[in-house]
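Hi F.,

I've been meaning to write this up properly since the lab meeting, where we talked about keeping a consistent format for the predictions we share between groups. The idea is simple: the sequence comes first, exactly as it goes in, then the structure tokens exactly as they come out, then a line or two of notes. No screenshots and no reformatting. I'm using this chain as the first example so we have something concrete to point to.
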Amino acid sequence: DSTLAVGYVADPATGSNVNVPRAAYVIASQNYCLYAGDPFDPTILYITSKGTSNVFQGDAGSDGTNIDMGVYVRLGDASIRGLAPFRGNVLIGFDRQFVICTLGIYSSTDHKPSFSDTIENYGVLNQSCIVASGDDVIFADVIGVNTVTRAVFTGLIQPAKSSHNIEPILIEQLGSLSDDILSTWPFMVYNGKEQEFIFFAPNLPYND
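Output, unedited:
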């Protein structure tokens, strides 16, 4: 269609994209946009200036910030694999843990998000394997499909397994696949009509 036009992310004040990161996935939460999945800096989380989708650290008047999440990762690879808004927080997923981010905390005019809690031994395969379901988040890693909920009385964020019936088959299927495949190909969808989640992965013994 000749009427279609390509628009590029750029600082609206200057038209420059010198500070725009490369990113495989982007989410919005709490009046910020979060970018991650930079192939050259896979541990960096890019957070825009408040109230914008395209003003970053380095742009004039911006409170955008870039954070190396590697310092918060104790288990597994420190590359960010997925992001998900979750009831006033953001879940930042890695292959063997999640870090819980609270946005909107400032020191003077500097945005200083809090990373005060982690969920260890639960990870995510990739961004396409995180699905929101009402107040919960469903996600898949190499040992099953899991859910994160917030406890009603304590407010604590709690993980739990949701795939006991299919877990042996799922582990066998995923165990044959390389990390490159796992981090790009599997995905999940929510079937609202049947109220079920469907997980898709390449067939055995595919590993190319």
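Notes:
The chain has a mean pLDDT of 85.
The chain is about 5% helix and 35% strand.

If this format works for you, I'll send the rest the same way.

G.
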